């Protein structure tokens, strides 16, 4: 049979195969996806140290066996799950020389041999993601047969699904998996799927696909891929696999529940749940023990705080004076940056010996959304620094923080630069300190040094979670406009979210006297 006739027959086979085939054939090919449904819960304890890794699933199988489809079905079946990353082994093909590129375009280069993949790099990236660090994944172009210069930033996974034909071959990779899956599929169906995928998505010809399949793909499957099924914890059929996927999802849900770290209630009222520090005779935390840098309480500062605390203050006035206080705080925080001498010539021709910040990399990170009230003040003081954001909200059911989105500056995304970067971390107040815990932990996971973090806030509750935060991260500098004495349970009206679709009252922690819901007052 001619290759063209065979391709037409195979296309009819794929589209008429039933449950799995049509979906796989029509699904767009997207590698290294980050899927977020309800946020990343805490992965650390009240001491600030990591207590659990991401849950990693290795999915192997022949080319076009349905590995990506199985991975996506797992995500779909899990439903309301935290952040999931689907990491494809296809991204880790080695960089090709001009001679190798010539062979690749002639379908004479073996992409199905283990030597074609950069296994150490794959294991290193996966190890970083598993240990809750960021990773920059290479991007491979199938049309050009080449690894591109740019990379894809990935971070924040609770569950990682690593899929590829050789996913179970390397012992270093297998050691990282919490669950190993092999997708077993009929060889005729795999060939049919491969032809349709490569023609539609990768611009290949049928002749080239068949020649490559017979020359490289089939021998590789027999010699390297199929034997790795012996390492799998579970073997999943390439189609009609709903029962197997449900079993996998049940196991993942159980593991996720066992790894949950819930401690916000402990840090909200630390003296009720956590042991007193050595030598302490009272649960009341003394201000001098917190090592805070409080803005000098000048008449100007006290006047601004009075206006901001007044619930009758107009939005326009609140906006203006919040920006003014944020500017003063950003200026006050400059003292924690390193400085070096600098001499300048003044307009009258005289020489002046002064100082300038000795920071090659400096950026701001806002904890959304109330932290946005400090962003304008930061930009007024340091107008050339990039600003990123972390979206952290409370889970309605547990009260624990959830990391919903991380839009961090490039300085922080690259670990070799993050180690030299100074970060202004901006949030309007530290009450229970739950959001502060998560934000600091995110920066540390990216490689930012603890003593390079300057946390800037309008208010701090002395009897809230600040004492636990200082114990966990003693090298972080905390700059605030004022320290309030009390934190109490209260109610937030009309919140709608998971488990509270009708917008009923939600229990929250309130600083007294405080400033109310600063984000709402600033933006609404």
Automatic annotation (TrEMBL):
<dbReference type="GO" id="GO:0005524">
    <property type="term" value="F:ATP binding"/>
</dbReference>
<keyword id="KW-0808">Transferase</keyword>
<dbReference type="InterPro" id="IPR027417">
    <property type="entry name" value="P-loop_NTPase"/>
</dbReference>
<dbReference type="GO" id="GO:0044206">
    <property type="term" value="P:UMP salvage"/>
</dbReference>
<keyword id="KW-0418">Kinase</keyword>
<dbReference type="InterPro" id="IPR029057">
    <property type="entry name" value="PRTase-like"/>
</dbReference>
<dbReference type="GO" id="GO:0004849">
    <property type="term" value="F:uridine kinase activity"/>
</dbReference>
<protein>
    <recommendedName>
        <fullName>uridine/cytidine kinase</fullName>
        <ecNumber>2.7.1.48</ecNumber>
    </recommendedName>
</protein>
<dbReference type="Pfam" id="PF00485">
    <property type="entry name" value="PRK"/>
</dbReference>
<keyword id="KW-0547">Nucleotide-binding</keyword>
<dbReference type="Pfam" id="PF14681">
    <property type="entry name" value="UPRTase"/>
</dbReference>
<comment type="pathway">
    <text>Pyrimidine metabolism; UMP biosynthesis via salvage pathway; UMP from uridine: step 1/1.</text>
</comment>
<feature type="domain" description="Phosphoribulokinase/uridine kinase">
    <location>
        <begin position="56"/>
        <end position="238"/>
    </location>
</feature>
<dbReference type="InterPro" id="IPR000836">
    <property type="entry name" value="PRTase_dom"/>
</dbReference>
<dbReference type="InterPro" id="IPR000764">
    <property type="entry name" value="Uridine_kinase-like"/>
</dbReference>
<dbReference type="InterPro" id="IPR006083">
    <property type="entry name" value="PRK/URK"/>
</dbReference>
<feature type="domain" description="Phosphoribosyltransferase">
    <location>
        <begin position="296"/>
        <end position="490"/>
    </location>
</feature>
């Amino acid at each position: 049979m001619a290759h063209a006739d065979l391709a037409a027959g195979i296309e009819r086979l794929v589209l008429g195969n039933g449950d799995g085939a049509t979906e796989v054939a029509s699904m767009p090919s997207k590698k290294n996806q980050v899927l977020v449904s309800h946020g990343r819960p805490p992965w650390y304890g009240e001491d600030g140290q990591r207590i659990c890794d991401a849950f990693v699933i290795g999915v192997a199988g022949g080319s076009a066996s349905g590995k990506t489809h199985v991975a996506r079905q797992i995500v779909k079946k899990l439903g309301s799950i935290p952040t999931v990353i689907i990491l494809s082994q296809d991204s880790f093909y080695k960089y090709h020389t001009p001679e190798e590129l010539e062979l690749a375009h002639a379908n004479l280069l073996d992409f199905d041999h283990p030597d074609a993949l950069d296994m150490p790099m794959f294991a290193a990236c996966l190890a970083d993601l598993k240990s809750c660090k960021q990773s920059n994944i290479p991007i491979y172009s199938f049309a050009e047969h080449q690894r591109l210069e740019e990379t894809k930033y990935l971070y924040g996974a609770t569950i990682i699904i690593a899929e590829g034909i050789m996913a179970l071959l390397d012992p270093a990779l297998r050691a990282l998996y919490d669950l190993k899956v092999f997708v077993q599929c009929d060889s005729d169906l795999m060939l049919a799927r491969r032809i349709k995928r490569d023609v539609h998505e990768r611009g290949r010809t049928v002749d080239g696909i068949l020649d490559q399949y017979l020359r490289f793909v089939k021998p590789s499957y027999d010699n390297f891929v199929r034997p790795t099924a012996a390492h799998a914890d579970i073997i999943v059929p390439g189609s009609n696999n709903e029962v197997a996927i449900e079993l996998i999802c049940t196991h993942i849900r159980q593991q996720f529940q066992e790894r949950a770290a819930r401690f916000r209630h402990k840090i909200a009222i630390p003296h009720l749940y956590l042991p007193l520090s050595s030598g302490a005779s009272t649960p009341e935390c003394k201000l001098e023990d917190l090592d805070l840098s409080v803005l000098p309480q000048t008449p100007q500062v006290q006047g601004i705080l009075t206006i901001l605390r007044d619930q009758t203050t107009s939005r326009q006035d609140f906006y203006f004076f919040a920006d003014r206080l944020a500017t003063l705080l950003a200026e006050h925080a400059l003292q924690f940056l390193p400085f070096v001498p600098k001499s300048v010539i003044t307009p009258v021709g005289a020489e002046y010996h002064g100082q300038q910040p000795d920071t090659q990399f400096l950026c701001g990170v806002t904890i959304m959304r109330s932290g946005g009230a400090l962003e304008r003040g930061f930009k007024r003081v340091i107008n050339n620094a990039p600003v990123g954001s972390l979206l952290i909200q409370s889970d309605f059911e547990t009260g624990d923080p959830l990391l919903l989105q991380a839009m961090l500056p490039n300085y922080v995304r690259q670990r070799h630069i993050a180690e030299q970067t100074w970060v202004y971390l901006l949030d309007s107040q530290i009450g229970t300190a739950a959001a502060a815990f998560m934000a600091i932990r995110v920066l540390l996971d990216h490689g930012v040094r603890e003593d390079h973090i300057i946390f800037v806030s309008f208010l701090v509750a002395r009897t809230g979670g600040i004492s636990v935060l200082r114990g966990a991260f003693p090298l972080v500098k905390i700059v605030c406009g004022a320290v309030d004495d009390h934190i109490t349970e209260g109610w937030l009206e009309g919140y709608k979210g998971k488990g509270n679709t009708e917008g009923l009252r939600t229990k929250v922690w309130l600083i007294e006297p405080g400033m109310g819901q600063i984000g709402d007052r600033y933006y609404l």
